[in-house]
Structure formats: C-alpha cells, structure tokens
C-alpha cells in the first residue's frame, strides 16, 4: 500500500505506517499535477489537511484510490458523499487537535483582553520613545475570570473550550444547533476531578449575555453572525473565530469594531483564505493568526498516529 501525505504527516505517523510495510510519500504536489502523480505512483491513500482540495474531478481521475484521509475535523475540502459512493474509505481525526484549537481561542482572548496583540506591534516601534504613553493606553485591560463565556458549538472543540473557561472561573453559556446537555469532567494534576453539567441555551441568550464569544461550529451556508447578531451583543464584547471563514460577516465585524460594539476580535480563519482582506489584516483591534488552530507538535503527533492506525486497520480488511 502506498500513501501520499500531500499536506504532511508527523514522524510518528510515518513510522507507524512504515512498520506495517506501508510506503509513505511526503511530496507536496500542486493541484494541477495531483491526479497524474497519484496515478503514476500507484497511490492507494491520499492524506490531506485543509490545503488540498479533493473534489469529484480528482476522485474520478484517480480510480485506484482506496482511502482519503483528513488530518483534522472539518471535511468541507473533500467531496465526502461522492467518494463514499465510489467505494472509497473516508477517515479523519475529530478529536486529535481539539485541545490545541481550544488553547488558541484563549491565547487570542488573553491577547485581546490585555492588549498584547497591539503592544507586540507597537513596543518595537515606539517602546523606547513612548513607553509611558503606551502603558497608559493599555489601562482598560480586563480579566477573564468572573466573565461570561459564550460558546457557539458544543462539539469536541467546544467542550475543550468550556473546560478551559470553567478552569478560569468563567460563567458558561453554550449554544448548539440541536439542544443538548453535556456532562463535563475536569481532571487535575493530583487525579482529583470535578463534574459539571452544561445545558445548551438559545443563540440569543449567548449573544445577549456573554462578555467573550467563541465560534466552534462547523461551516455554515450563510453568516451565523451578521449585523443583527452583532447588534444583540453586549457593548465591549470580545469575539473569536477559530472555526471556519464565512461564519462571521467580516464587513459587519469591522463596522461593529469601529462603532464600539466589539472591543476586539480574534480570527484564525477568514472569508477569503489564504488571502484575507487588507482591511482585516491592518485593523489594530484584531488579533490574527493564519489558520493554525491545530498546528502544535502535540496535535500533529496525535493526528499522524490516528490516521496511521485507521489506515493499518483498513489495510487488514482489504
């Protein structure tokens, strides 16, 4: 069996596959050459992350593909149903990167709440000459403890976000597309644990009552957060989107920042990715990262291992 990891795979994943007599190709192949590379090299398994698109035409052009794997959660870059109809196995790693994404949410929230996103830009430029002025400009910073965290989406990432929020002493309001109750356990370094029951509430309740709001929901057809939803929010709210571009109307978000409704926002994903609008990139109230939610060594090791284990299991069945 031959695997093409077109968007990369961890060393641990590679080793597991090689130990099972599976060949791993780590060549990064451009979209226009992908189908010919797969066919010329008799590739059985195509592994991708978010960069590579696996659409119907590629599936049709590569009749020998047996498995398509996505390192991560979202499958919107793969025509999943079409591939399944063609008899191809589809695998992903829905839990492997959840902790990393959740931690990024709070990295951005802390950065916004303490103005670090701005001070990191200005200190190298003005720290020597305007130190006291910069210090004074950041005196309206806020704590997260005691604030209300609104979590939109109670999937695997949303649950990890809730856990961190609870550990920081935040109040939790969570919305899910379908009503649900989650029993969440926090386990500490000394093996003590605490259990919390989180019941979903309406989106309106989350929007109206939260100080910090995070998007942890799958791709939506239309904007989930538009002018109307932004207007419902508290004045001075902080927002983070580490889910998918297009969940928030970016033009409406900029307007809400400029009129003072939104104190700051964090974006790890963008409507026009990989070329975000310049107005987004240059706004001083935004904390930005280039879609790196799952980009930690820890998450990538788990992703590689989980993909490898699934491939090995399927190989034994073929």
TrEMBL record:
Domain spans labelled D-isomer specific 2-hydroxyacid dehydrogenase NAD-binding: 107-293
Top-level taxon: Bacteria
UniProt signal peptide: none
Domain D-isomer specific 2-hydroxyacid dehydrogenase catalytic residues, every copy: 8-314
One Pfam family matching this protein: 2-Hacid_dh
Name the record gives this protein: D-3-phosphoglycerate dehydrogenase
Record's keyword terms, sorted: NAD, Oxidoreductase
InterPro entries reported for this sequence: D-iso_2-hydroxyacid_DH_PdxB, D-isomer_2_OHA_DH_cat_dom, D-isomer_DH_CS1, D-isomer_DH_NAD-bd, NAD(P)-bd_dom_sf
Family per similarity comment: Belongs to the D-isomer specific 2-hydroxyacid dehydrogenase family.
Coiled-coil spans in chain: none
A single GO molecular function term of this UniProt record: oxidoreductase activity, acting on the CH-OH group of donors, NAD or NADP as acceptor
Species for this entry: Epilithonimonas mollis
